[in-house]
Amino acid sequence: MSALGALEAAAGSGGTALFRPLSAEDGEQRPAEIESLCMNCYRNGVTRLLLTRIPFFKEIIVSSFACNSCSWSNTEIQSAGRIQEQGVCYSLAVTSRQDMDREVVKTECATARIPELDFEIPAFTQKGVLTTIEGIIDRALAGLEQDQPLRRETDEEVARKIEEFIRRLRQLKELHSPFTFILDDPSGNSFVENPHAPRKDEALVVTHYRRSPQQAAMLGLEGEEVAEKAADPAEELRNEVLQFNTNCPECNAPASTNMKLVQIPHFKEVIIMATACDSCGHRTNEVKSGGAIEPQGTRITLRITDPSDMTRDILKSETCSVEIPELEFELGMGALGGKFTTLEGLLKDIRELVIEGRRNVHFIMDDPAGNSYLQNVYAPEEDPELRVERYERSFDQNEELGLNDMKTEGYETPAR
Fold it and tell me: Which one of 59, 96, 219, 369 is separated from 247 by 20 to 30 angstroms, measured CA to CA?
């Protein structure tokens, strides 16, 4: 039977909880002692296991081994649960003595950093440990000081640099200045205490993140099926041109239509559809809004003052009308269908008059569905010649869009 299995059996027969909250005042919380082999002298020593629960965190197994024959000892912790679905990163602003005493669970796959000192304890260089912020610094100091006598004899320059680093690390421990302690664990099983729990700790930032493929491989998860978020269909469409068969609207011969989802900067997504007929040569292109009818209609007014205005991008939806009051020109809603083009492309029949600059005119787009667009060449700044107005649709406009008879209430699933 395993050590954990033996503990479970003992807890079951004694009627006590297997994992008890970590507390110095709990007199019944005692470790289980198991005789085990010393890996240093290969004689028998004693392993002590304590199954405990850290408040506002989770269950952990604290184990320690001591050999009376060679005096070798070892202490480590293990998570009693599985690897979490996401990694976790703790960032603590250490400013007081109380912060140095915060409880820390650092698993062996966690990385600890102090950016102000360019100090890092890489993953898998230490066993898991239950300690404090000060305890982590003490362990780092002990590790650095351990080989200093040998370094002084073999490489005095390296020994001098490490001595300077040790001095700076001691100053941090004595809180000569505040610093940031970062604990990053892709397994999600490390922990930094929040002494104000369950209230928010303003000094502690906890971030959960999705593991990278490299981190998953490091944890031995590369062979497991990792649940991924369902891909966004719109995201897939942005990178792909779809093609489907149709019939030519002129000669009714078989033709093909290409469709692509495009994001227009500072506006929204639209669907561009282009049809080409190899039989009669007929070509069409049409634009559909990628979204719903907007809550308000849109009236866009551009004062055309320069030939460069003719190169502005335009999205005219099938519900948009166009007007040039100076020329008494008006194009009714639905006359050209939806188009994504330039101002020159839309006004090709009158472009000579406008481009030659004989007079300044206004170009007005009125779309009660709110799905049309005219490029702001100063974006994201305001365009002095462009005015965009949002307005409430009239009853007749709602009627033309089929919104007056549309019922959206009463479809909720009844409570069971």
Answer: 369
The torsion angles phi and psi of 311, rounded to 5 degrees, stand at -90, 0
pLDDT by 10s per residue, the chain, length 416: 344 444 444 444 444 454 455 554 555 556 778 888 888 888 888 888 776 665 544 566 677 888 888 988 777 766 555 677 889 999 999 999 999 999 888 888 899 999 998 899 998 888 888 889 999 999 889 888 988 888 888 988 999 999 999 999 999 899 999 999 999 999 888 889 988 877 888 899 999 898 888 888 888 775 544 444 444 555 555 566 777 777 887 788 888 787 777 766 666 677 777 788 888 887 777 766 656 677 888 888 988 888 888 888 887 777 888 888 887 777 777 666 677 778 887 777 455 444 544 557 788 888 888 888 888 888 888 888 899 999 998 888 888 888 877 766 665 555 54
169 phi and psi, to 5 degrees? -65, -35
Residues in CB range of 379: below 8 A, 6 or more apart: 265, 266
Contact 46, 34 (CB under 8 A): yes
